[in-house]
Amino acid sequence: MLLPVPFRSAAALALATLVAVPAVAQVRDPVYSAARSEGKVGEKVDGYLGFVTPPGPELKKTIEDINIRRRAVYAEKAKTANATIEEYALTSGCLLISHTTPGEKYQAPDGTWQTRGPNPPLRDPRCP
Asked: Closest Cα partner for 71 from 93, 48, 96?
């Protein structure tokens, strides 16, 4: 279980994450875009994409590649922010979930998949 990031580094971590999230989110492969709009994949609490429904081989490879790129960004940014990859990924997950749009899937704190409605998504209590 992840422990909350100490307050003194949470602000720096959140600020650094704001820089990383757009870089990660900009990669919109057509396979990924279609799967996201069809509700087959969604943002997970841990900062990575997850499968809402069992994926085909092409989608599985695409999402795995995106998650590998996310992990590389998280590792780099975590080092700069003096945080662990897991802490950084969680904060990124919080921000990515908050940036979902109505109709998109996201993972709620209890691990269930939810569809974003007009209201803010449910977020992990550890979110900054």
From this structure: 48
Phi, psi of 121 (to 5 degrees): -70, 160
SS3 87: helix
Residue 2 located in a structural domain: no
Please name the residues in contact with 124: beta carbons below 8 A apart, sequence gap of 6 or more.
45, 90, 93, 94, 109
3-state secondary structure of 45: coil
- 73-119: pLDDT as tens digits: 999 999 999 999 999 999 999 999 999 999 999 999 999 999 999 99
pLDDT in tens, 5-28: 443 344 444 544 444 454 444 457
Is 111 a domain residue?
A: yes
Question: Which residue from 19, 20, 24 is spatially nearest to 43, judged by alpha carbons?
Answer: 24
Considering its fold, how many domains does the chain have in total? Answer: 1
Is 20 in contact with 77 (CB distance < 8 Å)? yes
User: Domain of 103?
Assistant: 8-115
CA–CA–CA angle 119, 121, 126 (5° rounding):
140
